[in-house]
Amino acid sequence: MTADRPMIATAPRRLPAVIMAAFAALIAGAAMFAVPAGAATDDIATDCTPDASTTCVSPIVLDEEREPVPGVEVSIAGEGFEAVVTTTGEGPVSVEVPTRGTYTLTVNPDTLPADTHADPAEREVSAQTGATARGAFTIGTGPAPDPEATETETGTSSPADDPGAEGAEGLVEEDVTVSGLPSFGQVWQQVGSGLRFGLLLALASVGLSLIFGTTGISSFSHGEQVVIGAMGGFILINELGLPIWIAALLILVIGGLTGLLQDAAIWRPLRRRGTPAAQLMLVTIGLSLALQYVLQWIESGSMRIITSNPVPTTIAGITLSRASWISMAVALVVILAIALLLTKTRIGRAIRAVADNRALASATGIDPDAVVRIVWVSATALAALAGLLIGISFGSFTWNLGVQLLLLMFAAVTLGGLGTAYGALVGSILIGLVVELAGLVIPSDVRYATALLILILVLLIRPQGILGSRERIG
């Protein structure tokens, strides 16, 4: 308290200077806030790159062929910010906004090509720090539709709420017409989204299928391995600035080490004690809960955004981010490589032998413990890689992403046939297509129920799954 007395005593002498400084700061602050509101298009940088402290908004105007339309003015307003940008034919334009929040993008109809209209003419986007919030507008010919005649769903969703939707850095999907049937373009776009979701789900599910085939355990902690991969990717790419391909290699190693550690500390001792599979499954549930609490503590319960600077890329009439196309290709190549390894290599034949008959495989000189260890390491490594690709493709993730994906992974491997890599691939693609296409005709909150309904119907007809084989009894 004694240190404060001189300051209090001299306060009357400093009062005029303090008042003048505050007045100057007030004028400067008013000038700073007035510039964005009245900023002209030429004064705004349209190449915003998101980082840990930058928030970007990008309007995208496409024609009916999904090609960019240049020369269209789009106003961006919200959170005390207002600006007007003009689209180009070279790629999306993006501007930096002062803070995260909701921004309204409005197309100026006077700048559209003759006899065309924007559908919708206005869109709201949710901007997040470290990401680019994109709002897409489609330019159609003819008069503008009556806004009261057609009700549309707009906006974006994040993988934290929906693993099958584009995140804050992804593309904004086309509007879904509620009052009528979806168009062919909408269905085809959702097919592409379903293939993407299915391939990434298959990469995460194939390890779950192999674990069940060799150990008989349904691992409920497998979903957290996906989150570990996504979180590792966030640290390596966003925090350490490593290239994505180097991060992917490191994520494979990190994921494999977690599987090796789990097998050495938990599963191998329990196997040697002859612990039944049902009790081992309960252990995986406990491990899942423990990992969830750890991951939530590390993330502080907030959404993490993996910066990948997405670029819209159209292939066969389907527009996804370039990162999504690359992730789909990587997932497909890895899954096919695993399938070939299981069928064409010695270690693959050993894995299948242990899965078919553990005692007989041991009698022929195969070490079942070594095979199971390899399966655990491979499964956790593939799940971690899937988590990285999901984070890159959808832009963001949260600590409970594994819980949201786990039921779909179980449905995929059961639908395709337990214990087979090709079964996990087929089942996951079917789940992805059903989930995405169902969103066109039913509310998105219940579309995952359609995948489970398909699973029930298939199992009633073919209990072993699509590519599974019947078990011999006796």
TrEMBL record:
Main subcellular location of this protein, as a coarse class: membrane
Protein name (record): Branched-chain amino acid ABC transporter permease
UniProt source species: Myceligenerans salitolerans
Secretion signal, residue range per the UniProt entry: 1-39
KW Repeat (keyword) present: no
SUPFAM superfamilies the record matches: Carboxypeptidase regulatory domain-like
Compositionally biased spans, kind Basic and acidic residues: 116-125
One matching Pfam family: BPD_transp_2
Superkingdom of origin organism: Bacteria
Alphabetical list of InterPro entries matching this protein: ABC_transp_permease, BCAA_transport_permease, CarboxyPept-like_regulatory
Protein keywords: Amino-acid transport, Cell membrane, Membrane, Signal, Transmembrane, Transmembrane helix, Transport
Annotated region described as Disordered, given as residue ranges: 106-167
Family: Belongs to the binding-protein-dependent transport system permease family. LivHM subfamily.
Residue ranges of the TM segments: 194-213, 244-265, 277-295, 315-342, 370-391, 422-442, 448-467
Subcellular localization: Cell membrane
Membrane topology: Multi-pass membrane protein
